[in-house]
Amino acid sequence: MVAYMGPAITGATGGNITHSVLSYSLSYSVKKTTGKTPIEQVISLTKEKQERTRNKKKQVIARNKEEQAKARKIGLLSNLLSQHLETVAPVLSTKNKEEQAKARKIGLLSNLLSQHLETVAPVLSTKN
Predict the structure, then answer these.
(1) What percent of the chain has pLDDT over 70?
(2) How many CA atoms within 13 Å lie on the side-chain side of 30?
(3) How many structural domains are present in the chain?
(4) CA geometry: angle at 73 spanning 69 and 77, to 5°?
(5) pTM, rounded to two decimals
(6) With CB atoms 3.0 to 4.6 Å apart as the test, which of 25, 49, 88, 124 could cross-link to 103 if both were Cys?
(7) How many angstroms separate the CA atoms of 108 and 118, rounded?
(8) How would you classify residue 122: left for phi > 0, otherwise alpha for psi between -120 and 50, otherwise beta?
(9) What are phi and psi of 36, to 5 degrees?
(10) 71-101 b/e with 16+ CB inside 10 Å = b?
């Protein structure tokens, strides 16, 4: 109650009683409705907004880390398949149709992963 007397005393001494009464009334209404003074209310809302912003940033960082881990795995698979393809490539020149079919499948998988890697590569370059 003492805190609310400040505007009233200032208004009485400064000559602006209407302003003081309105200020006091508004502050009292806010305090009664929310349980906080107007300043406490502003501080509370600001802290809540900052917390929401922090949480969003944490979620984005977590998502980026997951995407980068997936991209690394895809890159590793692509490298392994490329290496395997180098060992299988000579088989393409042979006349054994089963081995040629296997080599074609590996080649197709390698191409698919390389294409997918091109779409995922920008994720690897992002920084958290």
Answers:
(1) 68
(2) 14
(3) 1
(4) 170
(5) 0.41
(6) 88
(7) 16
(8) alpha
(9) -130, 150
(10) beebbeebeebeeebeebeebeeeeeeeeee
Can you read off the two tokens belonging to residue 79? 């490298």
Measured distance CA(99)–CA(90) in Å, rounded:
10
Distance between CA atoms of 63 and 83, rounded to whole angstroms? 30
Tokens found for residue 88: 């299988």
Tell me if 121 is assigned to some domain: yes
Packed helices 38-92 and 17-34: angle between N→C axes, nearest 10 degrees: 50
> pLDDT tens digits for 96-116?
777 777 777 777 777 777 776
Domain that includes residue 103, residue range: 36-125
